[in-house]
Amino acid sequence: MKTLRPFTRALMLVCAAALAAGCAAPEDPASRPATARAGGLQDPQFITAATGNGRYEVQASRLAMYRAASPQVRSYAQMLVDHHTRANNELMDLVRARGMRLPGVLPRDKRAKLDRLASASGGEFDRMYIRIVGIEDHQADIALFERASRELRDPELRAWAGKTLPALRSHLDAAQSLGSAMR
Predict the structure, then answer these.
(1) How far apart are CA 47 and CA 148, in angstroms?
(2) Residue 108, CB half-sphere, CA atoms under 13 Å: how many?
(3) Is 17 inside any structural domain?
(4) What is the Cα–Cα distance from 99 to 92, expressed in whole angstroms?
(5) Between the CA of residue 150 and those of 41, 42, 43, 158, 161, what are the distances in Å?
(6) Average pLDDT of each block of 10 consecutive residues along the chain (183 residues)?
(7) By residue range, what is the domain housing residue 133?
(8) What pLDDT, in 10s, does the model give residues 70-90?
(9) 122 DSSP β-pair partners
């Protein structure tokens, strides 16, 4: 029984602390930022998504630089590598300045897309790359960055998202033009 006593005492302290936390006065919702009240996009959530998307687009575009049949698609891929590498580096600098770490691996869905792209060749690869990376992924990026430029708490991160939007929109426009020409 004596061996249970310290454990029982610790258990009682943990339960008391949990009970006290549950009984604390509720937080005033007006004291929280609007994004937190509305379930807005959180800074770490955006950083993780933007990092994964940026790395994926660079990898997919490097693949396209070598696998695409069309010189226009290869040129588009080179532009994405250049722009997204620069944007990724800017994001890394912002994140490191805040003492945070970036995720080291691609999200599972992005790896699956890379695998699908890698299995295509010739004109099929070109069409798939433009449709998936150029159009679908950039539409998703634009939606994410628009939301981030409104909802993020960190003003520098919010400004970076807003500053990056025009490039993402131009990437989408270029992909849509390429996609139309390939039909």
Answers:
(1) 10
(2) 0
(3) no
(4) 11
(5) 9, 11, 12, 7, 9
(6) 42 36 36 46 93 96 96 98 96 91 85 96 96 97 97 96 98 96 84
(7) 40-182
(8) 999 999 999 999 999 999 999
(9) 68
DSSP letter string over 66-131? Answer: HHBSSHHHHHHHHHHHHHHHHHHHHHHHHHHHTT-----S--HHHHHHHHHHHT--HHHHHHHHII
Task: With beta carbons less than 8 A apart as the criterion, state whether 64 and 125 touch.
Answer: yes
Residue 4 lies in a domain: no
C-alpha–C-alpha distance, residues 166 and 150, integer Å = 15
Write the pLDDT tens digit of every residue in 132-148: 999 999 999 999 999 99
- Report yes or no on 107 lying in a domain: yes
CATH number of the domain that residue 60 is part of: 1.20.1260.10
- Greatest Cα pair distance, the chain, in angstroms, is 81
Please state, in angstroms and rounded to a whole number, the distance separating the CA atoms of residues 169 and 152: 20
